[in-house]
Design brief:
The chain has two domains: 55 residues; 230 residues, MetI-like fold, CATH 1.10.3720.10. Helices cover 77% and strands 0% of the residues. It contains 15 helices and no strands. Helix 1 packs across helix 15 and helix 9 runs antiparallel to helix 10. The N and C termini lie far apart (57 Å). The N terminus and C terminus are likely disordered.
């Protein structure tokens, strides 16, 4: 009887400690979530608040005297939509091309019997570690006469070595028996890759696609270096110019008599609008992110 009571006491004590640890974990994660969400709420609130409220600093995490003039000004009076179009084209086309090149490179390199496999892998490793520099890269783009074109914004990211090795390592972990069965049935290498390997590799392909898309979308340096006209500027360059050309914005607001639009509100509105495409895309691939990177990066 006494032993049973001691056992019950230990169980209650263990259960209580687990509850305490769980509560602490929830509180800690809740604080981290607030640290991530509150700045976003602040920026969103400023983009929808009146100019007087934004200028006076009274906007925190909820719009003060809500209005849509700031958003309307950004969409109608600035080249935001053109910059958004350029970024969408570069991100969409670039991601598709990069994935085709990455898959086409990773698949043969994942086969041990591929002739020259070690040489090509070593060549990729060397080129990943040693980079020629910005000036040679710019000279190549200029020599090809593709300055101020979409190709110049896509070419530097045709393939990212890390992404290729992640996909290659994932392909190496797939069961070889499935491919052997397909070859016995007469399937070609291309058919095996498209119909068997790629469907089985959805987690890593979705992950790498997201990495490429974010890389293209957030690219600022190459867009600034390889574009010269306002027509070809991407969203990141537009955001940079908006933040650094406040004097020009002030003059335009005065000339256009936009009394309910502030500079800080315009910057906040531009940031909020630029987040929409990536935020809309992420939920469709986020469940693959951790799984794909973990499996693809551990092996080999």
């Amino acid at each position: 009887m006494q032993l049973r009571k001691r056992k019950n006491v230990n169980e209650i004590s263990l259960s209580t400690s687990e509850k305490v640890i769980s509560a602490i974990s929830y509180i800690f994660m809740g604080l981290l979530t607030l640290c991530a969400i509150l700045p976003i709420l602040h920026v969103v609130s400023k983009s929808f608040s009146s100019a007087a409220a934004v200028t006076s600093g009274s906007v925190l995490f909820w719009p003060v005297k809500p209005q849509f003039e700031t958003m309307q000004y950004v969409l109608e009076e600035t080249p935001f939509l053109n910059a958004m179009k350029n970024s969408l084209i570069v991100t969409g086309v670039g991601t598709v091309i990069s994935m085709l090149v990455t898959i086409g490179t990773a698949y043969p390199l994942s086969k041990p019997d591929f002739k020259g496999r070690k040489f090509f892998i070593m060549a990729y490793i060397v080129s990943m570690v040693f980079f020629g520099g910005i000036v040679p890269a710019y000279m190549v783009v200029r020599t090809l006469k593709i300055i101020d074109t979409y190709i110049a914004l896509i070419l530097p990211f045709f393939i990212v070595h890390f992404n290729m090795f992640v996909v290659k390592n994932y392909f190496e972990g797939l069961p070889e028996s499935v491919e052997e069965s397909a070859r016995i049935d007469g399937a070609s290498d291309m058919r095996i890759l498209v119909s068997i390997v790629c469907p089985m590799s959805k987690p890593v392909l979705a992950t790498v696609s997201m990495l490429y898309a974010v890389n293209y979308w957030n690219n600022y340096f190459h867009a600034m270096m390889y574009t010269t006209s306002t027509k070809m500027q991407t969203l990141q360059v537009f955001i940079y110019n908006t933040i650094n050309n406040t004097q020009t914005l002030v003059e335009r607001l005065v000339i256009g008599n936009y009394t309910n639009v502030s500079i800080d509100g315009i910057i906040a509105a531009v940031v909020v609008l630029s987040l929409i495409p990536i935020v809309a895309l992420y939920p469709f691939v986020q469940r693959f992110m951790v799984h794909g990177i973990t499996i693809g990066s551990v092996k080999g």
